[in-house]
Write a structure and sequence with these properties.
Layout (H helix, E strand, L loop, with lengths): L6 H18 L2 H7 L4 E4 L18 E4 L13 E5 H7 L4 H19 L4 H6 L3
Parallel strand pairs: 1-3
Antiparallel strand pairs: 2-3
Length: 124
């Protein structure tokens, strides 16, 4: 089912998907993930981009130090870029929800200290 992008509607779907994903995590992992804020933006702003054109299609981003590291002065949080996820899903609501879940778990993995190889090994 393909529908057009409407910010409030997509935000609601994304927030519900993140909440459901969080509640489905094993208890010990859920306790680590629960305090980590998730922010939702349309697309990455210029302040987040280093100039690499691939970054414009960024689906999500973890900001701050990982769970085990010494806290960074930058508050830890995950950002999900909903218009980019919607474009990736080609307007399919089910794929959008699946990608919100996968992107959230990917960025949560960074928070927990996994690098890209570690995430790929886990299918994320």
């Amino acid at each position: 089912m393909s529908v057009s992008f409407h910010w409030q509607e997509m935000l609601g779907h994304a927030e519900r998907e993140v909440a459901q994903t969080l509640s489905s995590l094993p208890p010990a992992l859920r306790e680590k993930a629960k305090p980590l804020p998730v922010c939702y933006e349309r697309r990455p702003g210029r302040d987040l981009l280093s100039g690499d054109s691939d970054e414009e299609d960024l689906l999500g981003l973890f900001v701050g130090s990982s769970y085990a590291d010494t806290p960074d002065p930058i508050p830890q949080h995950i950002i999900l870029f909903l218009e980019n996820i919607w474009s990736f899903a080609e307007g399919d609501l089910e794929i959008f929800r699946e990608e919100v879940r996968a992107t959230y778990l990917h960025e949560l993995g960074h928070y927990l200290g996994l690098d890209e190889d570690g995430l790929l090994d886990r299918g994320l």
